[in-house]
């Protein structure tokens, strides 16, 4: 069996996701898929601080991973069966980096955070739909083993009366994980959001209407945890989230096989809208931000 080819498009390749995805894909694919080509706009990150380890350039990264360097995005798309757009810490570049792939008709996975704002997210999904291109994006935390009952049965989220998510990391890079988990547990349809806190410890209250409420607390040293209350009074609490990257990779490959995204566009756009509102609410605490 000849493996089908996945192409990586990145802002620069020496970053954590690109350094791990090739091996995880190889382990999960069973010979069906391989990371075959890569292209990066820059050889090294422009914002790597003083004293940091020197980044590997594109040529070195490709040689070490056994992946061919594409001369252009167009070449990569033409020679690959599916596309991964990475740049996980620089989502402001996703729309530009993904534009040609979104016109290709080939399955495209865009890494977290999907877009820098709701408007960009909507434009990307609109372009993909116009061109018949299957498109999928998600935080890996959506696929944590503990959230599987909600991910497998999406109607269950609409029955949740309340949910609480604790998340770690800084807002710009990691808020997507917390708010994606909230979307898994509560679904879409949030009406408004407010924030309390300071420095890097913030609490976000999300009003879904009809007495339904979500709460997200984020601070860098925290683990990822969640709790959910159903309409019948039953509750669940998850002290940890596990197995999420292997499960994300399996979902990605299944998406490449079928073209059917495991996450609806409305959920991804809704998650970006929550992050938009949270960013503004941090500057205007105790004021409702309408979604």
Automatic annotation (TrEMBL):
One of its GO terms (molecular function) is nucleotide binding. Gene3D superfamilies: NAD(P)-binding Rossmann-like Domain (3.40.50.720). It comes from the Bacteria. InterPro entries: Gfo/Idh/MocA-like_OxRdtase_N (IPR000683), NAD(P)-bd_dom_sf (IPR036291). Residues 58-134 form the Gfo/Idh/MocA-like oxidoreductase N-terminal domain. This is Gfo/Idh/MocA family oxidoreductase. It comes from Cohnella zeiphila. The lineage of its organism: Bacteria, Bacillati, Bacillota, Bacilli, Bacillales.
């Amino acid at each position: 069996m000849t493996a089908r080819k996945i192409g990586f498009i990145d802002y620069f390749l020496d970053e954590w996701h690109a350094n791990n995805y090739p091996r995880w894909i190889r382990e999960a694919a069973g010979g069906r898929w391989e990371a075959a080509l890569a292209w990066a706009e820059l050889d090294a990150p422009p914002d790597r601080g003083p004293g940091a380890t020197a980044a590997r350039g594109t040529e070195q990264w490709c040689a070490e991973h056994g992946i061919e360097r594409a001369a252009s995005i167009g070449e990569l798309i033409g020679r690959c069966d599916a596309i991964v757009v990475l740049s996980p810490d620089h989502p402001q570049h996703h729309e530009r980096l993904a534009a040609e792939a979104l016109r290709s008709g080939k399955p495209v996975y865009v890494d977290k955070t999907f877009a820098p704002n709701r408007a960009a997210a909507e434009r990307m999904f609109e372009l993909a739909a116009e061109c018949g291109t299957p498109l999928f994006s998600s935080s890996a935390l959506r696929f944590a083993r503990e959230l599987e009952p909600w991910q497998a049965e999406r109607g269950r989220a609409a029955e949740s009366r309340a949910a609480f998510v604790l998340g770690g990391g800084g807002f710009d890079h990691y808020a997507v994980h917390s708010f994606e988990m909230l979307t898994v547990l509560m679904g879409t349809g949030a009406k408004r959001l407010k924030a309390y806190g300071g420095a890097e410890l913030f609490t976000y209250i999300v009003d879904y209407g009809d007495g339904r409420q979500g709460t997200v607390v984020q601070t860098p040293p925290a683990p990822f945890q969640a709790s959910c209350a159903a309409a019948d009074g039953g509750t669940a609490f998850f002290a940890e989230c596990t197995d999420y990257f292997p499960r994300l990779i399996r979902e990605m490959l299944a998406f490449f096989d079928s073209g059917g995204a495991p996450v609806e566009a409305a959920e991804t756009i809704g998650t970006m809208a929550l992050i938009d509102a949270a960013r503004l609410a941090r500057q205007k605490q105790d004021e409702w931000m309408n979604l």
